[in-house]
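Postdoc handover notes: sequence design on the structure in folder B. Input tokens:
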């Protein structure tokens, strides 16, 4: 014998809410990454390569409150009006044009000042390919947020292992801040 029971209104509302939440989660999970080499280092700190103009216009809607671009505005695939696009959609924009061939400690100090001022804001740090961004973010997390280097290195190595001038730069910043960490050699 088949018994059919009517579901109470509160239960049906709860089930509808759960179904809607599951659908929203599935839609968010299906969103493409923000840009090439996208990495969520933490819940609030994300790094990526150059986002498209369309993506830049959605960052505020995605909860980003600060966008830091470490590539010079003349970089390949740079978006000419990036700062305007970001600001029009509710986020703050900062460009610190780091020379790929000669990153400096002054660049890191400027980046640190911006990031330390960000407090609990959701931040996207990007450059052309997420190499500058991931290296600077690694250094910020270790030097300023006191994250163990091996833990912070996980997000860096998801993109690349710094070599040449970048390996030297990372080692120099760590040494100036008395952080002992052996940067693995690039293959």
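Designed sequence:
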């Amino acid at each position: 014998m088949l018994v059919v029971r009517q579901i109470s209104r509160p239960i049906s509302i709860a089930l509808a809410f759960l179904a809607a939440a599951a659908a929203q989660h599935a839609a968010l999970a299906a969103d493409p990454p923000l840009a090439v080499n996208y990495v969520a280092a933490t819940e609030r700190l994300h790094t990526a390569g150059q986002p498209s103009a369309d993506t830049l216009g959605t960052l505020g809607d995605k909860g980003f409150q600060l966008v830091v671009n470490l590539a010079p505005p003349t970089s390949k695939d740079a978006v000419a009006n990036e700062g305007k696009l970001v600001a029009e959609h509710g986020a703050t924009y900062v460009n610190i044009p780091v020379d790929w061939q000669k990153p400096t400690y002054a660049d890191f100090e400027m980046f640190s000042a911006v990031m330390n001022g960000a407090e609990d804001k959701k931040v996207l740090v990007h450059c052309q390919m997420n190499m500058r961004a991931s290296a600077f973010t690694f250094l910020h997390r270790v030097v300023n947020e006191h994250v163990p280097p091996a833990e912070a290195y996980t997000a860096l190595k998801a993109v690349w292992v710094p070599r040449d001038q970048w390996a030297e730069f990372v080692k120099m910043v760590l040494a100036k801040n008395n952080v002992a960490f052996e940067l693995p050699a690039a293959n």
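Context for whoever picks this up: The radius of gyration is 21 Å. Don't rerun without checking with the PI first.
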